Amino acid sequence: xxxxxxxxxxxxxxxxxxxxxxxxxxxxxxxxxxxxxxxxxxxxxxxxxxxxxxxxxxxxxxxxxxxxxxxxxxxxxxxxxxxxxxxxxxxxxxxxxxxxxxxxxxxxxxxxxxxxxxxxxxxxxxxxxxxxxxxxxxxxxxxxxxxxxxxxxxxxxxxxxxxxxxxxxxxxxxxxxxxxxxxx
Length: 184
What we know:
The protein is an alpha+beta fold. It contains 4 helices and 11 strands.
């Protein structure tokens, strides 16, 4: 199954096209070398840079032995998964942070994972953009997860879950989104 991306356009119905990854990775280098990255070098590792939230989420996800590969979805790259979001009647972009390839029995599933601080001004519109994508394409993927932080712990909203997705779609503010995370 190809990865799907929804290129951003100033139209309500962007086109869906397959992602074609480049032959060479282009990312900001960090100090940690991560295993199973799709652009790993001959040693099997790649050093993309992440913030603390991203590093914590990536570390947790890589503990799953069924994750066979992953990719940092680099914002604004030609090949990146780009979803739409609507904020104040203006269309914008959402670049979820991670794509994970996970083995489920004999099949491979792609999971979309986006850790995002729910206190940021764009948090609700990004969450709703991911929810819209999950509603339309979630059946073709593994999981579509929005990750926030409540106190010192990370909390996941599984957007392929219809009840969770509808709650995100109906949220009217970042405070409402934060409440959803605190109740998860």
